[in-house]
Every structure is written in structure tokens, then in C-alpha cells.
Amino acid sequence: MFAQNSSDDYIKQITNIEEIGGMKGHCAIVVNQYESSTYITYHDIDANNKIKDGKFIDIPQAVKALASLKDEPIESECNWIDTDILYSSDNQLIWYVPAQKRALWFVASENKFSLKVHTPSFVFSLNRNARTLRVFSCKSKSRPTFETKLYNAPLMNVSLDGSLCLGSATLPDNVQSDSKQIRNACESALFDTNFSHINNPKTFKSKKDVTTAGHVALWKKFEKENREPKASELVLSTVSFKTLTQGV
Predict the structure, then answer these.
(1) What would the pLDDT profile of 138-156 be if each residue is shown by its tens digit?
(2) Which of 13, 124, 182, 239 lies at a 20 to 30 A Cα distance from 192?
(3) What values do phi and psi take at 224, rounded to 5?
(4) Burial of 130 (0-12, 13-18, 19+ CB in 10 A)
């Protein structure tokens, strides 16, 4: 194994499976070093023998996966990876939702209305044991990495530490898998709600604390301008990917 600072360094050194014996690979588990910490990433290998972008997995997962390998070819990759998943462990599931245009619903003075806006990418973090959900935004144009900056989610119902106030919404009874159904249900707990008030005054960057009225006004502005919020208009979170994977 080559020494590297990130999985990208490894990919640059081995881009074709022929370099390691001519075998047709199924996947790669890479040991990465970031500052003083070591992390493991899982990578698929495509039909052209190229190592693809990976996701973070923890050491027990890697050991369990390696211990379960058999001599027979693996028929399905569905239990290994979904490209939206960034990190998965017994207690944590972290995934991202790419930037897209969506309808946000608001309730003000008993009036319900929607705004069709471009939202930034979001990073969700599900604590399986505590059954809590956190959400942040990011401005990466591609799949987030361990070094991607996290911003406060520019949404109502989200606290300063990213915690989502579920209100009457509920999480699935079983949150122990990484299934798309579970992730969709978690996302619906946020995006299918009727936003009525902010849970923190730093949903957007401002010289003064952002109010509920000010928050709605900004989203109306973005709708009119047909754009998503810029990084300069968001507030950098005090939470990093490293602390997020640790459940802090």
C-alpha cells in the first residue's frame, strides 16, 4: 500500500488494476491519513478498471466486510455503497443531497405559500442510537469530501448545531440500514414541513441576527433572482466532518 494523504493520492498512483497484477478488481479499501488521524474509504472499481470515488467507512465495518468475503464472485454491490452516502457506522449515517430546485413551504399569519427556489447541497447526519437528525449545507460542486466546509443549513426548524426540530414529523421505526427509503423519510421530515419560524438567528450571514421575516425575504429574493445562496451569504458551521463522524 502506498503512503498517501488522501484517497485521491492513491487513485492518482493506481488508476488501472493491471498495475497490481492484471486482476479484475471488484472494490478497493484504502487507508487514508488526514493530519494525525487515519480513516478508511471504500471504492468501487468500474468496468474500465478505474478506481471510483469512495465513501468513508469505519474500521469495524472494514473488518466485517473483509471477514465475510468468499471465494465466489460477489453478485451484487447493493450492500456495499450508494454514492450519496458519505459515512456509515453502527451509530452514524451521513449522506448528502445535491443542490437542486425544490419547493419550500412557509406558513405566516395562517397563510400558507410556497417558494420554488434553488437550494444548495445538504449534508444529513442520522444518529441511529439517539434517533436524532442533523443537517448542514455545503457549496461543493461535486461529491463532498472529508475536507469540505460545512455551513449552517439556511432553513427554518434547524438549530445552530444542525439539529432538526422534528415537531410532528417522525423518523422511521428502524434506522439501522443505509437504505434509500430511510434517507428519503429523513429528508421528508425536513423538506415536507411547513416552515413557520427560525430556530437560530444565523441561517444566513448578516450583520444583525436573522429574523423569521428576514429569512423568508431572503428566500423570496433568491426565487426572484433564480439562484441558490452563495457561499458568502451562508454562515460557516462550527461543526466539521471530523466531529460529525464522531457524533459530536
Answers:
(1) 998 788 988 899 999 999 9
(2) 239
(3) -65, -40
(4) exposed
